[in-house]
Design a protein that fits this description.
The structure holds 2 protein chains of 2 kinds.
Chain A lengths: L25 H5 L4 H29 L10 H36 L8 H23 L13 H5 L4 H28 L12 H33 L12 H18 L2 H14 L7 H14 L15 H29 L8 H24 L1 H7 L3 H31 L5 H28 L13 H31 L52
Chain B lengths: L11 H34 L15 H31 L6 E8 L2 E6 L4 E3 L1 E5 L4 E7 L4 E5 L4 E5 L5 E5 L5 E7 L12 E6 L1 H10 L6 H11 L2 H5 L17 E3 L5 E3 L2 H9 L22 H13 L11
Helix pairs in contact in B: 1-2, 4-7
């Protein structure tokens, strides 16, 4: 709003103007190399996986209403939590913000026409789809009962389910992650518009840059680990099974060496979205830009060194436990820095409560609780009691759902006008955000208490004294479901009936708002020139001589 | 519907764990107040259209950044050190503890006391005395979790892990398997029965097998022909086992290991892996010939052949 260099392309009701959605053929979608269309392909595919995983969660919550629920058999319950975990982690959360919103906005935010390797980008999506299809196929032919963590020797020797098929799905999808990460790193290095220096980058870019580093460096380890399970399972080569001369705890080291950094893949992008939203809707420059930017990098780096905090009771050396514990306390600091800076950004702002901002505030609240309960689990002696209980379940859902999914919803609402060219109904949006927040807390807060009481995870039946908390949690899950179904309905509705969106409905400063909604195929009519830092917001009350009391 | 808000607290280590838990809870509330109170205040005061002063004075942000990074970090490191100290205590069983052997399998717990008494999914122990579990699994990884004792440890195939606690209150407390182990994971549960010492003695007598674990191990030692090589009068050059337990053993490859449960187990199952210095790799593997319970009995026997803490079993 402070620069006018490309306001020439405001559509101003020009229906005939071509944009990236104009062409309607199936072929034009399936063979597209446009990062915006690929983002939308990802959005549609992850929604399918989310739906399957959510149905699995709903069935588990119904089963858990009574101590000896008889909705499903024990082996079915075990398959349900495996499906839920695998699909939510690898086929929803990991691609959610990076592959959907990242694909859509990264090139526009840095003033580029596309990502560095557009064809590779399309290949990523196809790999993702093949991986997802394999995972769903393994469910159709009978399912997998190992849990998403695939602990050995259960997964490699004892389980009689379709482990190899499921693993193959995750393995292939991993390459999609690696290619996407690679693409983003090169794009951010090489495709920035003239004048877009590193410290003029929006913080969303910093967080996705850190995320991409993790994807590229950690995912190959997951591939090796999953391959090793398959080799042991198919050919009986002793790697993890002690009966064959292997070491079952080795698997945990390898798995968490990937999966703990992957946890940060499931939160850093959410933090990036919140950094955009908080500053935009309080009309104030972000507080502590450098600290937020570098805290993302710090999280990515230190996040590689804390994997052993999943293994304090695994028979890992207690001295190793000591090191992993102290590093886990240290990695909490950069997250805390972000929360404090977001809060400080509100000071003397001019805050409006549009739907994206409600999600941002919900994120800060839920992520703070998720982060603080992480300290309980990082504290060695306390983790001995809480490990593998519902406390852990509650903690990581506060991070991944309360944090990442809330961030994803906030970002989706924020960029929806840009993506679709339509406005969603604002009041319904606010109600849905509120319903989600209430439903989420009702679902997961009781699980902290359950965990402290000692309820272990992955139990299809439980002692009667735990029932009250399970009932609350199931009630919350029903509310949460409404909170997620509402946006689905009104987003679809808005595609036909929503108000036409202007180029910049939020009066935001990012380059993505300086082009039309929806953007033309090449994003910008002419390459933008960047002359100042991001987030040059000013409270309306201070603008053009407005009075203040 | 029975209902507790907090778990029962029936073991000495549990108090220490709970103290850290509540300290962390207090810290969490404090930090939440630190974030949410200003957040709420700013959110209301600086809402759009509210006529308040919004002019910013120039101030250096780095002072804020350093303050809110350093202070929580040091509080966190303090809690780390406290929890680490308690963890080391929890993970180091005392020497004079009552010993119980635990074998996990899909999906039950098999326990044996030194006196030979066996139980399944139940553990009878006396109040006020440290109890040490030596655990292994005969299939997948399990986890022996007693919430009332705040005690938990994975039970891993191919290795021995230990867990200990000192019960402070008589009563019945739940055992859960905490590590997912397959179809009936949720049914791998049981009870700890904490009894008055006199009741415990009566229980031992009334359920006794007439043979201690060490005696059963001694029978195996002879039956399997171990004494043929390891015995005093043997012509074959094999290391003697008297006084072996707990002693440092120099190996052929220059390492020195302690002759603990794990070492003896490995030497029986994988005799070629760690050869004591001055000996040949002659011993056949007993892998597949011994159950986990029998292995534990053999170890108990070798332990009874002399080492300071095991003297008391020799009568």
């Amino acid at each position: 709003m402070n620069t006018t260099q490309i306001n020439l392309i405001e559509p101003a009701g020009d229906e005939a103007r071509e944009n990236y959605l104009t062409e309607h053929t199936v072929r034009s979608w399936l063979l597209t190399t446009d990062h915006k269309r690929i983002g939308i392909l990802y959005l549609l595919s992850i929604l399918v996986f989310f739906a399957i995983a959510a149905v699995a969660a709903a069935m588990m919550r119904i089963e858990l209403l009574t101590p000896n629920g008889h909705l499903v058999l024990p082996e079915t319950y075990n398959k349900l939590f495996t499906i839920h975990g695998v699909l939510m982690v690898w086929f929803f959360l990991i691609p959610s913000i990076p592959s959907v919103l990242g694909n859509f906005v990264i090139p526009m935010m840095i003033g580029a026409r596309d990502v560095a390797f557009p064809k590779l980008n399309l290949l990523s999506w196809y790999l993702f789809l093949v991986g997802g299809a394999l995972a769903v196929y393994s469910v159709i032919i009978g399912g997998v009962d190992t849990g998403w963590t695939f602990y050995t020797p259960y997964s490699s020797t004892y389980s009689n389910s379709n482990v190899v098929t499921m693993i193959a799905g995750v393995f292939v999808a991993g390459f999609s992650s690696i290619l996407t990460g690679l693409n983003f790193i090169v794009t951010i290095h090489k495709m920035r518009a003239p004048g877009m220096t590193w410290f003029r980058l929006p913080l969303f870019i910093w967080s996705l840059y850190s995320t991409s580093l993790i994807l590229v460096l950690a995912t190959p380890v997951l591939a090796i680990t999953l391959l090793a399970i398959s080799v042991e399972r198919i050919w009986g080569v002793g790697i993890f099974d002690p009966d064959l001369g292997g070491d079952p705890v080795l698997f945990q080291h390898m798995f968490w060496f990937y999966s703990h950094p992957a946890v940060y893949v499931m939160i850093l992008p959410g933090m990036g979205v919140i950094s955009e939203l908080v500053t935009c809707f309080s009309r104030k420059t972000i507080f502590g830009y450098y600290f937020i930017a570098f805290s993302s990098i710090a999280i990515a780096v230190v996040g590689f060194l804390v994997w052993g905090h999943h293994m304090f009771v695994s028979s890992q050396s207690i001295y190793a436990g000591l090191v992993f514990s102290v590093l886990s306390f240290i990695v909490a600091a950069p997250s805390a820095i972000k929360v404090f800076n977001w809060t400080a950004t509100l000071y003397k702002g001019s805050i409006s409560y549009d739907t994206p901002m409600l999600y941002a505030l919900a994120f800060i609240g839920l992520f703070t609780i998720g982060g603080l309960t992480g300290l309980f689990l990082a504290a060695l002696a306390v983790d001995v009691h809480l490990h593998d209980t519902y406390f852990v379940i509650a903690h990581f859902h506060y991070i991944m759902v309360g944090g990442m999914v809330t961030g994803f919803m906030g970002g989706l609402h924020y960029w929806w006008p840009k993506i679709s060219g339509r406005m969603y109904p604002e009041s319904l949006g606010r109600i849905a955000a509120l319903v989600t927040f209430i439903g989420f807390n009702l679902t997961f807060f009781p699980q902290f208490l359950l965990g402290y009481l000692g309820q272990p995870r992955r139990y299809h039946s439980y002692p009667p004294e735990f029932q009250i908390f399970h009932v609350l949690s199931t009630a919350g899950a029903s509310v949460l479901m409404i909170g997620y179904l509402m946006p689905l309905c009104y987003f679809v509705w808005s595609l036909w009936y929503g108000k036409k969106a202007p180029a910049n409905p939020w009066e935001a400063t990012g380059l993505e708002w300086k082009t039309a909604s929806p953007p033309p195929c090449d994003n910008f009519e002419e390459t933008p020139l960047v002359t100042h830092k991001p987030y040059q917001y000013k409270p309306e009350e201070l603008r053009e001589g407005a009075q203040h009391a | 519907m029975p209902f507790h808000l907090f778990p029962e607290d029936a073991a000495a280590n549990g108090h220490q764990v709970d103290q850290i838990f509540w300290a962390l809870a207090a810290l969490s509330v404090f930090i939440m107040a630190l974030v949410f109170l200003p957040l709420g205040y700013f959110a209301i005061r600086y809402r759009k259209g509210n006529p308040v002063d919004r002019t910013l004075k120039n101030f250096s942000t780095w002072k804020f950044e350093v303050t809110w990074t350093i202070i929580p970090l040091f509080i966190g490191l303090g809690i780390f050190a406290w929890a680490a100290e308690v963890y080391f205590h929890i993970e180091t069983p005392p020497a004079n503890a009552l010993e119980v052997s635990v074998v996990g399998k899909q999906w039950m717990w098999k326990l044996q006391h030194e006196e030979g008494n066996r139980e399944i999914n139940e553990m009878h122990i006396p109040v006020g005395r440290a109890v040490k579990l030596t655990m292994t699994s005969q299939d997948v990884i399990h986890d022996f979790f007693v919430p009332a004792f705040r005690a938990k440890q994975d039970v891993v195939p191919g290795r021995y892990t230990t867990e200990w606690f000192t019960p402070t209150r008589t009563g019945r407390y739940r055992i859960f398997c905490a590590q997912y182990c397959g179809t009936s994971h949720a049914a791998m549960i049981g009870w700890v029965d904490v009894m008055e010492p006199a009741d415990y003695q009566r229980w031992l007598l009334s359920t006794g097998q007439g043979e201690t674990m060490a005696a059963a191990g001694g029978r195996l030692y002879t039956a399997l022909g171990c004494s043929g090589c390891h015995g005093m009068s043997s012509k074959i050059h094999a290391p003697g086992l008297e006084g072996l337990y707990g002693r440092p053993v120099p190996l052929n490859d220059g390492h020195i290991v302690t002759a603990d449960d794990q070492y003896i187990r490995d030497s029986i199952l994988l005799p070629g892996s760690q050869i004591a210095v001055g000996y040949q790799n002659l011993m056949p593997s007993f892998k597949g010939h011994l159950s986990e319970e029998e292995l534990m009995e053999l170890i108990s026997y070798i332990k009874s052949l002399g080492s300071k803490p095991a003297q008391e079993h020799q009568q």
